[in-house]
């Protein structure tokens, strides 16, 4: 008896032959077949999620019926402090620019020409408007502005709340673009 194909033993796993490769054309290499497979376009698939249809812009009409005085006080204080800092810095920069361009010396010579030499001592504008005096004056103005703007903003918020109870408030239209 010829035993080319032995019978499988009971309980043994069947034999599996090695995978058969496709026949290559003469003169072609394995790398060429791989690049050809890569260049092939993939089949078009439908998108997983459909894009939402373009919606119309939503509009909402709202009324500002009340303004919180505490939030108005905080915002007004912060903004007025920022304005005060800007005031002091601007005053110092302006004085420095005027000093660099020589305006104070020109004013001093003009006042000396007007006054003449008989007046005694020469006029000195920097004696009355030095950098320290200008910065101090700007700081005082900034502090007064902080107090006034904060107080006026708080008073405005309270008056708005009173008038909004009578009239209904300010109408605002919000849109979704």
Q: What key phrases describe this protein's structure?
A:
177 residues, 5 helices, elongated, mainly alpha, 7% strand, 54% helix
Structural features, described:
The chain has a domain at 60-101 and 131-175. By secondary structure, the protein is mainly alpha-helical. It is built from 5 helices and 2 strands, in the order H-E-H-H-H-H-E. The protein starts with 29 loop residues before the first helix and ends with a strand. Strands 1-2 form a two-stranded antiparallel sheet.
Strand numbers in spatial order across the main sheet: 1-2
Count of separate DSSP helical elements: 5
For the secondary structure, the number of strands is 2
The biggest beta sheet is recorded as:
2 strands, antiparallel
Question: In angstroms, what is the radius of gyration?
Answer: 44 Å
Shape: elongated
Low-confidence stretches: none
What proportion strand? 5-15%
Class of secondary structure makeup: mainly alpha
Distance between the termini: 88 Å
Helix content: 40-55%
Round the mean pLDDT to the nearest integer and report it. Answer: 81
> H/E element string?
HEHHHHE
Write the SSE topology.
Elements: H1 30-39, E1 59-64, H2 69-100, H3 103-115, H4 125-128, H5 131-167, E2 170-175
Antiparallel strand pairs: 1-2
Helix pairs in contact: 2-5
Quick synopsis:
By secondary structure, the protein is mainly alpha-helical. Helix content is 54%, strand content 7%. The chain has a domain at 60-101 and 131-175.
């Amino acid at each position: 008896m010829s035993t080319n194909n032995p019978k499988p033993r009971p309980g043994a796993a069947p034999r599996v032959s090695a995978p058969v490769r496709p026949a290559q054309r003469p003169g072609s290499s394995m790398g060429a077949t791989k690049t050809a497979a890569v260049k092939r376009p993939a089949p078009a698939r439908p998108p997983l999620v459909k894009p939402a249809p373009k919606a119309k812009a939503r509009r909402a009409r709202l009324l500002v019926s009340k303004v919180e005085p505490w939030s108005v006080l905080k915002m007004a204080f912060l903004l007025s402090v920022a304005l005060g800092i800007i005031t002091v810095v601007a005053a110092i920069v302006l004085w420095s620019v005027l000093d660099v361009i020589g305006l104070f010396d020109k004013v001093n010579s003009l006042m000396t020409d007007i006054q003449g030499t008989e007046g005694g001592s020469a006029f000195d504008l920097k004696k009355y408007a030095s950098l320290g005096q200008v910065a101090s004056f700007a700081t005082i103005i900034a502090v007064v502005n902080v107090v006034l703007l904060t107080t006026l903003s708080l008073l405005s918020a309270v008056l708005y709340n009173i008038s909004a109870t009578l009239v209904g408030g300010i109408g605002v239209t919000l849109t979704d673009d």
